[in-house]
Design a protein that fits this description.
The chain has about 80 residues and is an all-alpha fold. The protein has one domain. It is about 75% helix and about 0% strand. Helix 1 packs antiparallel against helix 2. The longest helix has 30 residues. Keywords: Membrane, Transmembrane, Transmembrane helix.
């Protein structure tokens, strides 16, 4: 295969763009989880609440939201 027929990979977003995408995924996820689970978590010790929220938030952000936001960002950059 020559260089001209090799499929091009899309440009990776900069570190700053990645940080913005992660923030855009984490903030609403934490807000929704806090709204939905806030009452249930209030009965737990304060040291137990952050690990529970992180355990729920990280997979949602990493496996669902960030990939979707990256695809959307890529489409918007292509115009």
């Amino acid at each position: 295969m020559s260089a001209s027929t090799t499929p091009r990979r899309p440009a990776e977003p900069s570190v700053h763009q990645q940080a913005l995408l992660v923030w855009a995924a984490v903030l609403p996820t934490l807000s929704v989880l806090q709204f939905v689970l806030g009452g249930l978590l209030r009965g737990l010790p304060s040291y137990a609440q952050p690990p529970i929220m992180a355990t729920l938030t990280v997979p949602i952000v990493v496996y669902v939201l960030v990939p979707r936001l990256r695809r959307l960002s890529s489409r918007l950059r292509k115009g």
